[in-house]
User: Which sequence fits this backbone?
């Protein structure tokens, strides 16, 4: 079909980017992947740690890890700031710096938050002590030679090192709820396997665990491990969905950027740069934006704690409704679904029955509809003695604009909804839940994209 081919070309340009694909008409490679602008992260601070720097970290073929993760962090920073978050970057360029300098920075951010609480409470002793610890962090940042005194660096593989009392104090201050509830540390990396196997691909996230490998951690009272684990899980799910990666799950590790502070934290290995497919994505601007959005959605979900993150929302629960029955379709309090695209109105009515009511179909404007293709927004009406007793909107999954088809316009309508610029309601919102998880969210957008590209299906 001509129209199908056009959609494919347009979507390829929108979604895949890359040198071999035509540029977008408006010149904005991110037009297809905007992030909601709202205040969902107001009052929250996110420390973004783009891994490595000049002279350190993964290089493979023409790929340099620190360059690409910094770009993802920049895109992510914009997403988060658009949601009202304060973002602190552990580095903004490739300049070489000692890894533990980043930990001095993150500890300083957390201490600053606790200091505000203590000062407001008039706890002068705590404020003085925090000021001393802040000065200590600042001095280490000035003098790299102090690093081994305070941090587990170089890493003690015998696992006998005892945490420095000042760092322990910092960790104890960081167990304050102000940190737990308002601060998050995110480290961005890309992966290479221990072997030379270039077939390994996908996304892994890491977090700490107080009991990891028989307490090899040199500190075992991290107060945020459950939060960190939850965030790591969310980040893995969202990044895998956003970049179309296999999600390889959450692993436990005591990487320095997870262990040298007591802040909720997780690390993402957002693909394997040793795998040709992953690497092509990681080097692509649009995929970088998709990965950034995935992390951002996970951060919003982590902080808002609602089941309605991802710029989306949980749909009203469906309950059984026995007034109308069908052996072909699903009928619930929320309407009629399970209707194949292209179903004729007469055929629809023929597959529905009611003991007590006469069933008629109307269009969204309330006009009788005895024939013609059924679309999202049509309404099955149940009458008793010419009195309207019940209404069941028709839901065709993916037909979000109510024209009976699944096309680019449907994708754009869901996108606008997620961005908050044009809200979907009722049957149209339900039609957007194409993956049937009772949410209209980013993942649905991805399912529609795949459908339009011919690489995925939408079930009714
Ligand atoms: Zn790395």
Assistant:
């Amino acid at each position: 079909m001509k129209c199908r081919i056009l959609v494919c070309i347009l979507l390829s340009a929108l979604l895949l980017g890359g040198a071999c694909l035509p540029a977008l008409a408006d010149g904005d490679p991110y037009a297809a992947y905007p992030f909601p602008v709202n205040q969902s992260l107001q009052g929250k601070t996110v420390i973004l740690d783009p891994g490595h720097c000049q002279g350190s970290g993964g290089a493979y073929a023409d790929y340099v890890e620190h360059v690409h993760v910094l770009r993802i962090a920049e895109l992510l920073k914009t997403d988060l700031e658009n949601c009202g978050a304060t973002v602190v970057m552990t580095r903004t360029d490739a300049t070489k710096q000692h890894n533990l300098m980043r930990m001095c920075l993150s500890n300083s951010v957390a201490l600053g938050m606790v200091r505000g609480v203590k000062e407001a409470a008039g706890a002068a002793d705590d404020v003085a002590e925090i000021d001393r610890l802040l000065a200590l962090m600042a001095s280490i940042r000035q003098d790299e030679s102090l690093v081994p005194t305070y941090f587990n660096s170089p890493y003690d593989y015998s696992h006998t090192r005892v945490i420095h009392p000042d760092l322990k104090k910092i960790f104890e201050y960081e167990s304050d709820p102000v940190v737990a509830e308002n601060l998050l540390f995110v480290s961005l990396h890309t992966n290479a396997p221990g072997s030379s196997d270039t077939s390994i691909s996908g996304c892994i996230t890491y977090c700490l665990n107080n009991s990891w490998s028989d307490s090899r951690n040199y500190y075992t009272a991290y107060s945020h491990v459950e939060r960190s684990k939850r965030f790591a899980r969310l980040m893995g799910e969202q990044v895998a969905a956003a970049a179309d990666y296999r999600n390889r799950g959450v692993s436990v590790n005591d990487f320095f950027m997870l262990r040298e502070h007591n802040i909720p934290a997780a690390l993402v290995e957002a693909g394997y740069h040793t795998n040709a497919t992953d690497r092509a994505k990681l080097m692509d601007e649009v995929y970088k934006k998709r990965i950034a959005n995935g992390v951002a959605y996970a951060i919003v979900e982590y902080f808002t704690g609602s089941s309605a993150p991802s710029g989306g929302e949980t749909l009203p629960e469906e309950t059984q409704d026995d007034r109308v029955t069908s052996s072909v379709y699903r009928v619930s309090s929320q309407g009629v679904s399970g209707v194949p695209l292209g179903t004729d109105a007469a055929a629809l009515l023929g597959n529905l029955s009611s003991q007590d009511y006469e069933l008629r179909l109307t269009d969204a404007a309330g006009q009788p509809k005895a024939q013609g293709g059924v679309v999202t927004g049509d309404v099955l009406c149940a009458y008793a003695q010419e009195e309207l007793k019940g209404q069941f909107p028709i839901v065709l999954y993916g037909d979000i604009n109510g024209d009976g088809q699944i096309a680019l316009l449907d994708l754009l309508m869901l996108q606008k909804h997620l961005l908050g610029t044009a809200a979907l309601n009722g049957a149209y919102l339900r039609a957007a839940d194409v993956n049937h998880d009772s949410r209209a969210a980013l993942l649905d957008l991805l399912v529609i994209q795949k459908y339009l590209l011919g690489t995925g299906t939408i079930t009714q």
Summary: Residues 99-120 form the longest helix (22 residues). The chain has three domains: 1-32, 36-311, 314-460.
